TrEMBL record, chain A:
The modification 4-aspartylphosphate is found at D52. It comes from Azospirillum melinis. SUPFAM superfamilies: CheY-like. This is Response regulator. Keywords: DNA-binding, Phosphoprotein, Transcription, Transcription regulation, Two-component regulatory system. InterPro entries: CheY-like_superfamily (IPR011006), Sig_transdc_resp-reg_receiver (IPR001789), WalR-like (IPR039420). Coiled coil: none annotated. Residues 2-113 form the Response regulatory domain.
Length: 132, 237
């Protein structure tokens, strides 16, 4: 699966990227704000994105997820400040709360891959993933 | 009958009290925002430390160093699980529910990828509020024992089962971590055998004034952690 990471903390983004790649996914880029996220999403056409809420240069992950949803890209928030259902307004599949383990990250990516497949999800939502 | 000056004095007192109440409410709100921000920073920083260690591990040439760094990353995440519960939504400041904590530690200890992951069963029927100075060592010990099982008990794709059980008897908590793998070598199961992880678990058990018993099964290994804990009343945030 092609995954975009939207996170302004380099060390977190790099760890997430390596973990997802070691699980067999293709990380199409790391964006730290809304304009970069939109540019990378347009070029690389990822299947999904992990999106932090507080981003660089005043960007907000909810705005990013709204824009990505319009482009047909599934979003999961990966954040220390998880939104509630009303705040998310239907733009994210769910969230994993920081600090999250590599297992939660990898299982969430696998679950989203299943959700996006024509056959539907292969498993129940993993531990640590909260549906919005 | 109240005279005019008394009415004016009461009105002044009322307005002063109201202003004082509003100032206190504003200060309380500022403190809540500040606390939320500090908590956010703590969680973010713990995620950064864990990822930094993991990233360094995955880029290291030496398999031995790589494993040591991955183990340290896992320890940071075990501590982070306690913090997440202390400061999350609906959390209390000074206690952590132990069953839920152990469940997350156990879920996180399973290797993130790999073809032959042993199955895990977890039976922790008792809800138990633990103070932070108990929750952190317990999280680290259980993480260490589970990591040990997944790392050593099932070599060469061997399949098996890891179980975690928690029970309370009087003022004692018993956490039983067992696997049906190849078993610990006799010298490791002894009172001071094993590497950094197992010895850290022994030292943290001493800090809890508890006992860590290691039993060699056929097949497998059983770790029994027992420690005293009085029920504590949580402080609502």
């Amino acid at each position: 699966m092609k995954i975009l990471i939207i996170e302004d903390e380099f060390l977190i983004a790099e760890g997430v990227s390596l973990t997802l790649q070691s699980a067999g996914h293709a990380v199409t880029g790391i964006a730290e704000d809304l304009p970069t996220a939109l540019a990378l999403a347009g070029q690389e056409k990822p299947d999904m994105a992990f999106v932090d809420i507080k981003l660089a240069n005043g960007s907000n992950g909810l705005d990013v997820a709204r824009a990505l949803k319009a482009m047909g890209i599934a979003c999961v928030f990966a954040t220390g400040n998880p939104p509630n259902r009303a705040q998310a307004g239907g733009v994210g599949l769910g969230y994993i709360a920081k600090p999250f383990s590599p297992r939660v990250l990898v299982q969430t990516a696998a679950f989203v891959a299943g959700t996006l497949s024509p056959c539907g999800p292969a498993s129940v939502a993993p531990h640590g993933f909260v549906t919005l | 009958m109240l005279c005019f000056s008394t009415v004016r004095r009461l009105e002044r007192d009322y307005l002063a009290e109201r202003a004082e109440g509003e100032a206190l409410a504003a200060t309380l709100q500022e403190n809540r925002i500040l606390l939320d921000e500090v908590n956010h920073r703590v969680k973010n920083s713990l995620q950064i430390v864990a990822n930094l260690l993991r990233t360094q591990a995955m880029r290291h040439r030496s398999a031995e160093v790589r494993q040591e760094l991955l183990d340290s990353s896992s320890r940071v995440l075990a501590i982070a699980e306690v913090h997440r519960r202390l400061y999350g939504e609906g959390a209390v400041y000074d206690t952590v529910e132990l069953t839920d904590l152990i469940r997350s530690i156990a879920e996180n200890a399973v290797p993130p990828t790999g073809g032959a992951e042993p199955a895990m069963t977890l039976a922790t029927g008792t809800l138990l509020s633990a103070p932070v100075d108990t929750a952190v060592p317990v999280a680290l010990i259980v993480n260490e024992l589970l990591t040990n099982s997944y790392k050593h008990a099932f070599p060469d794709g061997r399949r098996g089962r890891v179980t975690v059980d928690m029970a309370v008897a009087g003022n004692e908590v018993r956490i039983d971590v067992a696997d049906d793998g190849i078993g610990l070598p006799e010298e490791v199961a002894g009172s001071s055998g094993g590497g950094f992880g197992l010895n850290t678990a022994r030292n943290l058990t001493r800090q809890l004034r508890g006992r860590l018993e290691i039993e060699r099964l056929t097949p497998g290994t059983r770790f029994l952690l027992t420690f005293p804990m009085k029920p504590s009343a949580p402080t609502q945030a």
